[in-house]
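Form P-L/3: holo structure prediction, ligand uridine-diphosphate-N-acetylglucosamine.
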Amino acid sequence: ATPETDGLQSLIMSRNIATIILAAGLGKRMKSGLAKVLHPVAGRPIFLYPVSVAEEISSAKIIAVVGHQADSVRDALGGRNVEIALQAEQKGTADAVRTGMDSLKDYKGTVVILCGDVPLITSETIKHLLAVHDEEKASVTVLTTEVEDPSGYGRIVRSTDGLIASIVEDRDADDSIKQIREVNTGIYAFDSSLLSPVVYEIRSENSQKEFYLTDSIEVCRKKGLRVSAYKTNGTDEMMGINSRVELARAEGIMRRRINNRHMLNGVTFVNPEAVYIDMDVSIGQDVTIYPGTVIQGNTAIGQGSIIYSNNKIVNSRIGAGVIIKDSCVVEDSVIGDGSQVGPFAHLRPGSILGKNVRIGNYVETKKSVMGDGSKANHLTYLGDAEIGSGVNIGAGTITCNYDGQGKYKTIIGDGVFIGSDVQLVAPVKVGDGAFVAAGSTVTKDVPPGALAISRVEQENREGWVEERKKNKKKKQ
Ligand code: UD1
Ligand code: CA
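OUTPUT (holo model):
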């Protein structure tokens, strides 16, 4: 941190901040059955981004005003320390703030208002907003920005002295006001002592018959309170998401941010534009990632691993020095240090690979544990299996784990050799060091160190091919 941001940090730490996040709306313009704030950006519901910002500015209290699909919004919060305020009917942003204020009755300090649909906003910007709010000893400070295309946003109307006079919504703006390119971001810092009286004075005399929080500016001016603005310059940060077009734009910007963060931490992308990494993924130093890869959820990738093209990795822990060759799907799995997977392998949920394991072409694993140094290099299905270390699984091996009703386990000890094309009919155990001959169907437990062989004995009929040809000719 620079001395300047350090100063900001201590200023913020010494004050009392409560943050209200407005997230009750359905978001009609999304044309969706899912509440707008639950739509994901880089794998996280939109409104969790402002929640993170509220945490980063050390809010003593965070209140999320929710309405549409409140239960799902509550679930998405997980274990975060956020209070929920239920706005049963969405009567506008001022009404939403009133709802949130109910949880702040005895609170004294600054109230930051964030929008649940503005995910790109950063805590640095909010810290600057708070600094301006303090310096100017304002009752309210609005975060504004100048944009190329202001359509859809509330316009900042300034009086001749340069101060903010009012905010006029796009819907209610006449042609001359529509020309204004300074817009309201929907983000504010309020002095808590006047927030309540101000929002209760707001009326719903507008095209939408809604209570607009933006009207708090005019109310403050009438009351002779000091209104201030922190104006930024056209950055993407302030973008509100109202439609899927904006959702896709925010997604692109967020992904670029995420990839830049990883590159600055020592991760190589052959083409960062073609790699899709969710917000909550962590990646170690000197990892290389090839194009076409999608890494989702809570995935962690250890140092020095190489992820080749077209892989999908979801909620998985990948160790250090791991190589994932092209076109694999890895879901809810663990891959130990130094292991190699793929190409064309599918690790389904519950696959736990030890160190230096090899999973090769067209191998599918599910709910299976493989010990250190074990290999299944080709065309194999391992489901509900517990496999020791140093095991070789031959090509075409199948654990027959399902009989149409129940699922059963296959247990394979250390140092076992399973030949090619073996079926292990579960439940079944193969003891340490045992050897299963190629082509066997194993239905009984194999003791440690034993050879299991179950196949029809081979018979060779000398001259059979020639004889057949002769017989065919005779018949013609
Ligand atoms: C709002 C601002 C506009 C600003 C823009 C910035 C108002 C009246 N307008 O417009 O000046 O330029 O944000 O993005 O404030 N919400 C509730 N309860 C409600 C209504 C809305 O919680 O009753 C929430 C929504 O879920 C959303 C946020 O408040 O997260 C903003 O509401 P939205 O309807 O998107 O307002 P905009 O039209 O974008
Ligand atoms: Ca909006």
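COMMENT: The longest strand covers residues 182-191.
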